[in-house]
Amino acid sequence: MHERIWANWQDFVGKLDIYPMIRPYLETSQITIHEVPAKTCISNAADEGYRIVYILQGSVKVVSLTYRGIRILLDEIGVGSFSGHISRMRGYSFDANIIAETPCVYLEFPDQLFCQLMENPAFALEFYRSTSSRTYQMYRKVFSLTLFTAEENTAMYCLMHPARLQSYTLDEICEEIGISRRSLCYVLKKWRKEGILKGKEKRDRIADHEQLMQIAEHIRQFYDIP
Amino acid sequence: MHERIWANWQDFVGKLDIYPMIRPYLETSQITIHEVPAKTCISNAADEGYRIVYILQGSVKVVSLTYRGIRILLDEIGVGSFSGHISRMRGYSFDANIIAETPCVYLEFPDQLFCQLMENPAFALEFYRSTSSRTYQMYRKVFSLTLFTAEENTAMYCLMHPARLQSYTLDEICEEIGISRRSLCYVLKKWRKEGILKGKEKRDRIADHEQLMQIAEHIRQFYDIP
User: Which Gene Ontology molecular-function terms are recorded (chains A, B) (predicted)?
Assistant: First the structure.
């Protein structure tokens, strides 16, 4: 199984910046290659260890299930990036589940080998370059949930992804925004009353773009989006 | 002025891991050394650029003033660490003010020179090592404001810093927790009623430690504190 996938991906992996550093461990199968269908849980919060992966194809979602039962999308990671319980390496744990959003192909690093690779300055630098920018993106997302109301966050989401009101379920939208279903329903109901949305649930479309822009005024500044 | 400070700090700076890389720029005074009293604003949100500093003595607070007028302590940085508008290097801005908490001595890097140093893998690695762990700490702090109520966050704060209820002003406590003054007053009033606190404002002391521990049950798990 691994060999068949490997045959397809050998050329691609050979061109990665990290290839010279990981090559010996690929050859001895200490670093393994995996192919999973969409919606597979690559690693869940209960798993021990770091479970570091490097995405070769597709994208994964990092989702945290909070004590109040709300699911929050923390991060979305695509080709050419590391994922896993990276915060655990630093002694933090955000109880995240890593779920394949699309069919995925990825490399998996055993914990001990990964720590050993991090002793190599060239590998460590590649790893930090790949992950450091994303931690700021994750930070901005969570910070905006503290700084702005559920309505402002929902307005921002609708401006960024106008089609999702129709194509996503309420649960999916809640998870992507990071608010409770109750808060989302309250906001949508309010907007229908105010004429910002037209149509029934699941058929909502934005009828008053101007007003939505106004609600999102401060959060747009925060996201630096005109 | 700079020369007098420099004479005192030359030995200390000479032992830093980054010294071999920054030495030529210290000698030509492109990297400058500064000594400031407590409460000095080292850089405010309105300043342009990255304003990267490296702390040699004392500690600084990174404080964001939100659109709702709430001040949130994002980070506290001590000796041997970088600070500045680091997130701006990644295209994010959290409108932070960097304020000396104690008397401070620090090195200041002009933006262009800092970018040039980041091209040096050895310097970049030192920088990432110093900053990457802290971004997770900042993340946890802000995430906990989303995950938990003002009461839970206040309970956690009181458990971590039991003396501050008496020695800090309400404004200082709000800023450190990251909640509004109104929320804090509401929580303290509730706790006085429930007998968790005894004494009047500014003389509050924890009278029912057990109940505080119970309020903070989930947030203690999140912070991994027994």
Answer: kinase activity
Residue type, A161: H
User: In terms of residue numbers, what domain contains A218?
Assistant: 148-222
- Clarify whether residues B116 and B199 are in a common domain: no
Q: Which of A121, A140, A148 sits opposite B121 (nearest CB)?
A: A121
Same-domain check for residues A87 and A178 = no
Region B27-31: what's the mean pLDDT?
93
On whether both B121 and B162 belong to a single domain, the answer is no
Q: Using an 8 Å CB-CB cutoff, list chain B residues near A66.
A: 147
Q: What is the mean pLDDT of chain A?
A: 91
Regarding whether A128 and A84 lie in a shared domain, the answer is yes
Average pLDDT, chain B: 91
Assign residue A199 the CATH number of its domain: 1.10.10.10
Please tell me whether residues A122 and A182 are part of one structural domain.
Answer: no
Overall average pLDDT of the B131-157 stretch: 91
Mutate to test the interface with A, among B63, B136, B222 (most CBs of A within 10 A): B136
Q: How far apart are CA A177 and CA A145, in angstroms?
A: 8
pLDDT score at A89 = 83
Of A188, A178, A182, residue with least CA distance to A151:
A188
Q: Do B222 and A87 touch (CB under 8 A)?
A: no
For residue B124, give the 3-state DSSP assignment.
helix
Rounded CA separation A109/A86 (Å): 12
Chain A positions in Cβ-Cβ contact with residue B131 (cut-off 8 Å): 132
Contacts of B137 in chain A (CB under 8 A): 90, 92
Residues A64 and A169 in one domain: no
Instruction: Return the axis-axis angle of helices A150-160 and A121-147, rounded to nearest 10°.
Output: 120
How many contacts does A have with B, using Cβ atoms within 8 A? 90
pLDDT higher at A98 or A226: A98
- Rounded to whole angstroms, the Cα distance separating B223 from B156 reads 9
